[in-house]
Amino acid sequence: MDELASDLGFRLSRVARQLRTQWGERLSTISLNQPQAAMLRALEGGPSLGLRELSRIIGADPSNLRREIERLNKRDLLVVETPQRTGFKATLSLTLAGTELAKETRRLAQDQMAATMDRLTSAERVGLAKAIAKLEALTGITQVDPEDNYGQSHPETNQSTYS
After folding, report:
1. Residue 18 and residue 12: Cα distance in Å, rounded?
2. In this structure, which of 9, 144, 146, 160 has its CB flanked by the most CB atoms within 10 Å?
């Protein structure tokens, strides 16, 4: 066990699994799964998005999102707008009920983040945000420059990014 306890990759995976489990439990209280929550949050307050753009934003394969789109559409949370002209792609947007559920999802995400991050000092939050930004850039998740002092000039350091 000592070898695992010193393995940073193992420890990061364990933290990610624990946070995902806790997030899934919170989402079950509003009858959503994690991909659905990510979709609602990505569509909240913005313009309609195509499937590929939505999948890029939330980091999921478009073919895997189709089933969740159908489920959200059946619950009248999401509208699939079919274009009038051929050659254009369908777009996705939230209904009023979807917007309300997205707000509730955001509140749950903030509660989830607060349960953990409020126990860290401001300096620890900034350090964590910088480290995550660097890891995201190094793994190709984002194109963010890890040297941009993330967290000091970005107020979202204290905001949730759970999806």
Report:
1. 10
2. 160
Q: How many residues does the chain have?
A: 163
Helix (H/G/I), strand (E/B), else coil: 87: coil
Q: What is the CA radius of gyration of the chain?
A: 18
Single pTM value for the model: 0.77
| Domains of the chain with bracketed CATH | 2-119 (1.10.10.10)
Q: pLDDT tens, 10-41?
A: 999 999 999 999 999 999 999 999 999 999 99
pLDDT digits (tens, 9 = 90+) for 37-94: 999 999 998 889 999 999 999 989 999 899 999 999 999 999 998 877 756 688 999 9
- What are the residue ranges of helices labelled H in the chain? 2-5, 8-28, 34-43, 51-58, 62-74, 96-117, 122-138
